[in-house]
Amino acid sequence: MRAPDMDAGVTAGDVLLAVENVSLRFGGVKAITDVSFDIRKGEIRAIIGPNGAGKTSMLNVINGFYHPQDGRITFKGRTRSKMRPYVAASQGIARTFQNVALFKGMTTLDNIMAGRTLKMRRGFFWQMLRHGPAMAEEIEHRKVVEEIIDFLEIEAIRKVPVGRLPYGLQKRVELGRALAMEPELLLLDEPMAGMNLEEKEDMCRFILDVNSQFGTTIALIEHDMGVVMDLSDRVVVLEYGRKIADGVPDEVKSNQAVIDAYLGVPH
Amino acid sequence: MDILYNIFIDPFVQMGSAPDLFVQTLWEGLVSGVLYALIALGFVLIFKASGVFNFAQGIMVVFAALTLVGLYEAGVPAILALVLTIGVMFVLAVGVERIVLRPLVNQPDIILFMATFGLTYFLIGFGELVFGGNPKVMITDELYLPRGSVEFEMLGGFVSLQKIDITAAVIASIMVASLAVFFQKTRIGRALRAVADSHKAALSVGISLNQIWIIVWFTAGIVALATGIMWGARSEVSFALQIIALKALPVLILGGFTSVPGAIVGGLIIGVGEKLGEFYWGPLVGSGIESWLAYVIALGFLLFRPQGLFGEKIIERI
Amino acid sequence: MFYREAGQFKTNYAADMAVFPILQDKIGIALILTLALVVIPLAGNAFFLSVVMIPFLIFALASIGLNLLTGYTGLLSLGTAGFMGVGAFACYKLTTIFPGVNIIVWILTSGLFAAAVGVFFGLPSLRIKGFYLAVATLAAQFFLQWCFIRIPWLYNYNVSGAIEVPTRTLFGIAVTGPNASPEMRYYVVLGVVILLTWVASNLVHGRIGRSWMAVRDMDIAAELMGIKLLPTKLLAFAVSSFYCGVAGALMVFLWYGGAEPEVFSINQSFLILFMVIIGGLGSLTGSFFGAALIYILPIVLRGAPSLVGLDIGAATVEHLTFMIVGALIIFFLIVEPHGLARLWQTGKQKLRVWPFPY
Questions:
Q1: If DSSP codes are grouped into helix, strand and coil, which group holds residue B306?
Q2: Which of chain B's residues have a Cβ under 8 Å away from the Cβ of A101?
Q3: What's the predicted TM-score (pTM) here?
Q4: Which part of the chain is the ABC transporter domain (chain A) (predicted)?
Q5: What interface predicted TM-score (ipTM) does this complex get?
């Protein structure tokens, strides 16, 4: 399923994002404890683990929504003790969410257009007129958005408010909104949760296409092990906020700690 | 430097030099605080159980008091009028549940909030239509409420406490205590707390939302009646009260929307804060600051503790 | 049958992104403009212009202002009247200090003062949300109203404590003051309202409007997409307060002709909030519907008993009006919680497929 130059185990590319010794606490609750891993340019990296393992918290740390108490995050060669949402977004980290976080009152088109906000330059004065440069800019971005709509095959729902769409399509629009940011690193939080087989296959196809066509690096959380093993280049496994395994899918699959985490340890 | 002295030092010098005046002001503040707290209590009850931000609580206070006095003036004996008024509040609760809440179930908060605005307008119109728009005098003697004042000689001066204020404080404490018991110990109380957490989950275990709502609005109605009697006894019964009832909002901010003890403590803080503020700092800016001081106190407080006095720190999840 | 876009193909994005993409809508808006610009001033009498049309337009403008904040950005405000007051008093001060400058310039400038005050009171919106924020705006409402009463400099130390609007002219014709004709005042109000509605429509259909709605619908997702929350919210406060400020200046200068601080009381704020909610949150058209219903309905109700020959006391009519308005608010919320704008949409949808049900 993968491009031929990236055989399992020999992943090409430099490190795009490195997380080192990150710990995150809420009051007395430890969500993440001393976790380190990296994501290389161009790969699909899966983060798996049982419920409550700290996977979503990890993504929240990466794009700056949660601020870890300890540790460092290096993105594109710059090391920070914590990310800020605005910095993460403007540096090229985009995100989809576990429970769809679309702008419910807006149409599909507007949702994806909103993903272009950071790329738009025209100021308040031109926005008031909505003619001349502001309109030209709007049209230019509309073209990009239409390409995304075309890519995701959602032409028919272009002008439908997303609140009325079925769940599967909402997930797709959300992917579109993230793609509109032209990210270098795309974080997908359970992109296939609650989907039927057909929808899952579609979504897998989109993820692989995004990765190979646009060269986007992808980090994804997913519970469907079949999907994870097929899609990803490398897998990191979390349990109770700690990293218990890291490696190519076959290694992880046979790792004793991972098997214990998923199947339980006899006492 | 004069300004700084006037703001930061002079008021405290005044407090120290006339401690009896200070205690008197403090007491006034506590009393109006109790009344704010009672209104806030009605808010909290309804907000907890139905998630409705009930703007009409203030008008319910006026409406209850008006009904009581109106019935008495129409020739009904005082005690019977009280019972009848409780009946009217029950009818109101049922009506609100049937006509307003039930058709609007599952609507966004702001829609329900606006609906209580509609209710406010309706009750104002209805109350004035039936009982007339003129201010009325609360029937205190007939309800066996004490009048007059007690004077204490202390701190080199006199402090005088109105008996009705003391009664108000006692009744408020009894009401809060019995509500606490009701919430914690009874089956209905448990159902109420369940509804507060999640409507859907409560429905799924067989709790009747409609019944709970009627109970809550009725309870809030009784709280409103008690508030109306106390407040009416202090000044007069008129629709001007509803603007004062808006003061319950900063109280709620301080106490948190869902906390009964919060409503009480918040009410006292706001009451004392604005009376002391008006008395000692008001003259610096030409007085009348009572109209906005409460909101500014609440606002300043919010900036440091957005979750209120008794609220837990909110962890945002996504 | 008559209202259908079938056969109207867009060949470029600009046409598809137009505010009124359908030909019939374009005709409709042209008709409304002709009606407002030509027919009403010609056919309407002075009473109709000054008692119905001018206040309606001013309330619509204030509703648009509040709608930008509450409907588009999701920030509930109960301080609208306070911001309107800032506009009115700023305009009064400006035109009495610099009487030579055209009054329309000052009306628009006074909006900037309101915007600045709005931004200041919007600062807490970074940390607080929902009903909590509503209390912050209540602080603005009561504080500003207190200022209007307690700072005599604002009303030029008039003994009455009220603003008295001086006569100001445009091309030699009186626009404000006792000598201004209703027609002239109507045209000025209409011009300002059309201009600002057009600007508001441009804003909400572009990048800024999308950022506002994104913050309204899911602020966390918006933030993680690089939309900075505080500047976006403050911009909404600024633009909203600008609109309210201009509406306030228009209200005092072109409608009342003078004003006491009572005009900008909390009840005025509530009234405008009603208009926005009944009209439809997040809809500019809805703001006009809401203003029409909430402002004109009581006028009709007050006039109705004498029309049908009933002799009821004025006080009773007033009370009944309150009751009916209250009941209607509840009724409309139950029938269509998304307001008249949504009813209008549904109606248009029905019209598209007429005579078939779907």
A1: coil
A2: 318
A3: 0.90
A4: 17-265
A5: 0.90
The first and second tokens of residue B289, run together, are: 């600051």
| Per-residue model confidence as pLDDT tens digits over B182-199 | 878 888 888 888 887 777
**Structural domains of chain A, count:** 2
In a domain, A256, yes or no: yes
**Residue where a domain stops, chosen among A117, A147, A180:** A180
- The range of the structural domain enclosing residue A160 comes to 105-180
Domain presence at residue A15: yes
**Tens digit of each residue's pLDDT (9 = 90 or more) over C281-336:** 899 999 999 999 989 888 888 777 777 766 677 778 888 888 888 898 888 888 88
Task: Residue count of chain A, please give it.
Answer: 267
Chain CA centroid to CA A174, Å? 11
- Structure token pair of residue A198: 């057909």
**Burial grade of C43 (CB within 10 A; 0-12, 13-18, 19 or more):** exposed
- The closest alpha carbon to A19, from A223, A243, A207, belongs to A243
Residue of chain C minimizing CA distance to B51:
C131
Residuewise pLDDT in 10s, chain A (267 residues): 334 444 334 345 789 999 999 999 988 889 999 999 999 999 999 999 988 889 999 999 999 999 999 999 999 989 999 999 999 999 999 999 998 999 998 999 999 999 999 999 888 999 988 888 999 999 999 999 999 999 999 999 999 999 999 999 999 999 999 999 999 999 999 999 888 899 999 999 999 999 999 999 999 999 888 889 999 999 999 999 999 999 999 999 888 888 888 877 766
The verdict on A83 and A161 lying in the same domain is no
Do residue A144 and residue A37 come from a single domain? no
Tell whether B187 lies on the interface with A, counting CB pairs under 8 A. no
Question: Are the Cβ atoms of C277 and B316 closer than 8 angstroms?
Answer: no
- Residue A98 within any structural domain of the chain: no
Q: In the numeric block, which tokens belong to residue B166?
A: 């003391």
For residue C189, which of C32, C286, C58, C85 has the smallest C-alpha distance? C58
- Residues of chain C positioned with their CB less than 8 A from the CB of A120: 207
CATH of the domain at A41: 3.40.50.300
Q: Does B318 touch chain A (CB under 8 A)?
A: yes
Please report the number of interchain residue pairs, chain A to chain B, with beta-carbon separation below 8 angstroms.
11
CB-based contact, C223 to chain A, within 8 Å: yes
d(CA C242, CA C59): 14
Instruction: State the smallest CA–CA distance between residue B316 and chain A in angstroms.
Output: 9
The tokens describing A244, both together, are 């218990």
Do A143 and A109 reside in the same domain of the chain?
yes
- Please enumerate residues of C whose Cβ is less than 8 A from a Cβ of B: 76, 124, 127-128, 130-132, 134-136, 138-139, 142-143, 145-146, 149-150, 220-221, 224, 266, 270, 273-274, 277, 281, 315-316, 318-330, 333-334, 337
Domain boundary among A152, A180, A208: A180
